[in-house]
Amino acid sequence: MKTVVVTGGSRGIGKAVVEILARKGYAVLLNYHTSEKEAKEIQRHLREEGCFVEIYKADVSQKKEVKEMMEFARNKMGSIDILINNAGISQIKTFADLTEEDWDKMMQVNLKSMYLTTKEILSDMLQKQEGTIINISSIWGVIGASCEVHYATAKAGVIGFTKALAKELGPSHIRVNAIAPGMIQTDMNANIGKEDIEKIKQEIPLECIGKPKDIAKCIEWLVEDQYTTGQVISIDGGWGIA
Ligand code: NAP
């Protein structure tokens, strides 16, 4: 049974990824930070379906917590075959209003976390000379976003991290890819009003907001594909080309 760690698996996109991969027969470690009730509920309903799901509370921006989480994962499931770096936060603020704390937190949760998790599991993949890492970036990391400079910067960093690591790890048969979602219907966008959502839909060629499952389906494909690496796959209804 192949093993997967999904960061930020308690809600939104991460939850859909946990569900799709667990139902496909992977052994999944669902990482959460604050949403314990949600994580337990996902574990409960997937176990009822016969899936293998462990849950673990850790702040992915904290080295010690990430290290302990990966030790837990190895003890429960064996070495890690697949890492999905999904956990993330967003914040809307003008650059003028951004504080140093805002900036540092954004970098730590959305970018440094990928360094920490990848460092912890890489020896497993190098030993087996195979593995897959999928990092969640954003449309804003590709084309930039007003009033989200720190978010867009971190997500652009995710793309640089992905491409550089893909080149370095290719000879070890470890594939590293990124996904750049457009607007996906999750809690992250819950504070955007109905009117604004309608306006955004008009900017998107496919005229609709994406669903977490749209991203999860691509991840399901990417973990099984053998010849894709260093790519940034935009799943955004065409918003990025509009
Ligand atoms: P969401 O519904 O707000 O869920 C965020 C997830 O990240 C939650 O499971 C949360 O865990 C976890 N998380 C946040 N901070 C964490 C930390 N310090 N340590 C561990 N876990 C942490 O967001 P989403 O929309 O599913 O977003 C998932 C990823 O997609 C993010 O990287 C986001 O930037 C990216 N993305 C989203 C969109 C979109 O439109 N939704 C678009 C582009 C990119 P707890 O709830 O347990 O705290």
- Sheet with most strands: 7 strands, parallel
User: pLDDT under 50 segments (min length 5)?
Assistant: none
By DSSP (H or I, 4+ residues per run), the number of helices equals 8
Unique ligands:
NADP nicotinamide-adenine-dinucleotide phosphate
Q: What is the mean predicted local confidence, pLDDT? A: 98
- What is the chain-wise order of helices and strands? EHEHEHEHEHHEHHE
Which term fits the overall shape? Answer: globular
What class, by secondary structure content?
Answer: alpha/beta
SS elements, strand count: 7
First CA to last CA: what distance? 42 Å
The Rg value, from CA coordinates, equals 17 Å
Strand content: 15-25%
User: Could you give the order of strands across the largest sheet?
Assistant: 3-2-1-4-5-6-7
- The percent range for helix content is 40-55%
List the helices and strands and how they pair.
Elements lengths: L2 E4 L5 H12 L3 E6 L3 H13 L3 E6 L5 H15 L4 E4 L14 H29 L2 E6 L2 H5 L5 H21 L4 E8 L12 H10 L8 H13 L7 E4 L7
The structure holds NADP nicotinamide-adenine-dinucleotide phosphate.
